[in-house]
TrEMBL record:
Keywords: Receptor, Signal. InterPro entries: BUG (IPR005064), Bug_dom1 (IPR042100). Belongs to the UPF0065 (bug) family. It comes from Enterovirga rhinocerotis. This is Tripartite-type tricarboxylate transporter receptor subunit TctC. Residues 1-26 form the signal peptide. PANTHER family: BLR1237 PROTEIN (PTHR42928:SF5), TRICARBOXYLATE-BINDING PROTEIN (PTHR42928). The keyword Signal applies.
Length: 323
């Protein structure tokens, strides 16, 4: 009859044989292209930043990263896709905007952001701002507010989607100002830019996909939403400077399906962290006014419950309902 020691050794050896292929796969990662979901339209500020980061990260990994745009649902399509995946192998990851943590309190979802994903890295935040056409009569934000107060509901604003940080911010700002304006949701920055160029909306509240149009004079930037003035726009006041208690940069990062191997998470983290010091990436981030807001996997994951508590409170206070 085999001894206890012999049986234990046999079981240990069997376990090693089972786990060895997984460890080897993780150590050789990647062996095929990685798909990175960008839940926004091509040409948006998120798309521009993530594409250049993916190029730099791919060089670090000595592999390929393929961008898959999945716009709509306020940037939550990537999370929905990952929640339904049974292979947490690291070959499909997604950008996670702040909307992912707000969405469970405004819509029916089948995932819990605090439990159902593997957090890889927090990367950067946005420069948000309100823009009007360059030829519009609104020279300052005060001009726009005065018109909105005198004409309730007539000011229309485009955003990248219902319940995005821009939509929520405009609701909050409307309450602070005591004005009523009309929301027109789009699927991302490329669409909001087209809408404002065509005169379909009075103004746009969005991340800095509007930068080229501001630079060439097609758009006028009335304010930004950060704690301090945006480096590319030192002459443009923040909402806080204008006397409104609202600051928003909406930091974002990358996540994968629940249960990813630590070695794979580390490989992806290291590659994208390296991208944040790449000159080409820094040039694009600088143009977009996106400041690095890095968090490692552990700190990123640990931040999620607190973010969700805050977003739940905002959703309840504003009475946000499913779109």
């Amino acid at each position: 009859m085999p001894s206890t020691t012999t049986r234990r050794a046999a079981l240990t050896g069997a376990a090693a044989l089972i786990t060895a292929p997984t460890i080897l796969r993780a150590q050789s990662f990647p062996t095929r292209p990685i798909t990175m979901i960008v839940p926004w339209t091509p040409g948006s500020s998120s798309d521009a930043a993530l594409r250049v980061m993916a190029e730099a990260a791919a060089r670090h990994l000595k592999g390929n990263i393929v961008i898959e745009n999945k716009p709509g649902l306020a940037g939550v399509r990537g999370a929905i896709d990952l929640a339904g995946r049974t292979q947490p192998d690291g070959y499909t990851i997604s950008q996670f905007p702040l909307t992912v943590y707000r969405y469970p309190f405004t819509s029916k979802v089948s995932f819990d952001p605090s439990k159902d994903f593997t957090y890889i890295i927090q990367l950067t935040g946005y420069t948000f701002g309100i823009v009007v056409q360059g030829k519009s009569p609104y020279k300052t934000f005060a001009d726009l507010v005065a018109y909105a107060k005198a004409n309730p509901g007539k000011v229309t604003y485009g955003s990248p989607g219902t319940h995005t940080s821009l939509h929520v911010g405009m609701i909050q700002l409307g309450e602070i100002l005591g004005v009523e304006w009309t929301h027109v949701p789009y699927k991302g920055g490329a669409e909001t830019t087209k809408a404002l160029l065509a005169g379909d909306v009075t103004c746009v509240a969005d991340a800095s996909g509007w930068a080229p149009q501001v630079q060439n004079g097609d758009f006028r930037l009335l304010n930004t939403w950060g704690a301090s003035r945006s480096k590319p726009y030192p002459d443009v006041p923040t909402l806080k400077e204008l006397g409104y208690d609202l600051v928003s940069t909406s930091p974002y990062g990358l996540a994968g399906p629940k249960g990813m191997e630590p070695q794979v998470v580390a490989a992806l983290h290291d590659a994208f962290k390296a991208s944040l010091s790449d000159p080409a990436v820094l040039r694009v981030l600088g143009t977009l006014g996106q400041e690095v807001e890095y968090l490692n996997p552990q700190d990123y994951a640990a931040s999620i419950p607190g973010i969700m508590t805050r977003e739940k409170a905002i959703a309840e206070k504003l009475g946000l309902k499913p779109a």
